[in-house]
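G., the chain you wanted modeled:
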Amino acid sequence: KSYYGEILEYSKLTKGVQKTTNAISELFKKYKYKGFFSTEVRTTKDDDNYLIDMTCRLPYPPSPLYPLMIDNLGEVIWGMANGEMVDIKTKHKCGLFLSISSENYEATNQPIHFPEKYRNNIFINNCIKVDGKYAALNINMFSDPEVGSLVTSGNSFEECKSQMEKIIDEVKGYGIK
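Predicted structure as tokens:
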């Protein structure tokens, strides 16, 4: 499981995404919605657009990338909660996300080991510390093997990939892939 994304000017999004977002924004205004949302829009060969998924929460992926890519994330969230539009200031325009999974995640927690210098690049699901070590807590006892993600950001795919290649072998733990 992986994800690659870029921050774009609104005008550079597809016409289908723009049309869908414009229509949804009217509903958000009417109901005074204040929060994150994401959409998936499929466009056919005939240029028809279909909203196939709308999520009124932080999307996963790519939300673990936001702290790496958005310089003023705290201001954006504060403004959103108070009904203010805050311009996003980007640190990086691109982000790369790779899932971290474990065959052992049916246990109550999955320890994940990595050098502390990479802490900002590791997103751990339901993160806890056990004896000073990071672990993913399986609060619902799901058998889904995803325990977190590895994230990098940069100004190109190649920059993100290069960072990922330096970090990926540093993430360790029983059954970790």
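Helices lie at 15-31, 66-69, 73-81, 157-167.

Shout if anything looks off.
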